Amino acid sequence: MPPLPEAAAARLSALGNQMRTLSDTFVGYPCSQDFSYPEIIPLLGYAINNVGDPFGESIYRENTFALEREVVAFFQQHLRAPAEQTWGYMTSGGTEGNLYGLYLAREIHPDGIIYYSEHTHYSAAKLVRVLGARSIMIRGQDNGEIDYEDLRETIRIHRDAPPIILANIGTTMHGAVDNLTTIRAMLKDMAISRSYIHADAALSGMLLPWVDDPQPFGFDAGVDSIAVSGHKFIGSPMPCGVVLAGRRHVDRVARSVEYVGCMDTTIAGSRNAVTPVILWSAIQRWGADGFRERMGRCLEMADYAIAAFARHGIKAWRHPNSITVVFPRPRDSVIRNWQIAPSGDIAHIITMPHVTRTMIDRVVAETAGLTQQQP
Ligand SMILES: Cc1ncc(COP(=O)(O)O)c(C=O)c1O
User: Fold this and answer.
1) 5, 67, 76, 228: which could join 81 in a potential S-S bond, CB 3.0 to 4.6 Å?
2) What is the pTM of this model?
């Protein structure tokens, strides 16, 4: 390949410096930044591609299926998904995983209605449009959970259509977990025989396995499919995720494709073959015990942040087992300086593993108006 022109190299070097500076103020989004994966570099010289079903054989053998299968197995184990009854693959992120779960649900129940709360990630409305599915948005409670009464009443009015519930296992803004036990009891109580529950566990799907007393969140809580992001708690320089679903559901959509010699069970055709190496490597490095210890530190940091806000008379709070610290929306300069995502009159910081006490002290001081960081 021709060498990179000097001017282009200089631009990339400036971009690197910009990232380094920005990383010091990265407290508003749920993406870990405490990683380093030099082991992927030798693989970047090949046209690796995980096209097709990672559990099949493909004619395209420059793939990382073997590692992808181990990543899926790790998620199956910790999302309490029986390996013989479930299947999964690595997605481009939580959004693709949610699309996959809703796609399966719509294939199984073409006459179904998708219910999701107003606190659901903004991409849900787009996904139901992509699928051309009927959907109804349900009121949310102030704490971020779905309003169970509104859900019950709405399902009752539409009893002829199978409910497809998009449950939040950790909402974007509040880190709230919709109660799967309550939702399942509601469906049982109404004698609804055809239904589907997809769990959007983008962040909390890799937090709840590491706490002592998690809210119900996995297949043992009755979900039909679950989507988790890989670049959030585990951390990755490239967005990625894992989706798991009941095998019997996936069998409904699987088609054999001669061109690549394997089953077409995934949404994307060509798929990232580097991200399986990244998650596999993280799993090898941390293991379940390492993730548990890391989550413990994140929870401690979340409590540190709440106490720091309280010292300045600012009320901040979090849900149990959540590292999303909610506080009143600060002024725009704080939002800009600290890359904080606002929503109406609230905002949050998320104490991902790279967030330090110093960062929290500075963000709290600035929110309280004691200091002004130079942008
Ligand atoms: C609850 C929830 N669902 C879905 C998503 C989308 O995930 P991704 O950005 O991995 O596509 C997010 C992202 O923050 C989220 O918080």
Assistant:
1) 76
2) 0.96
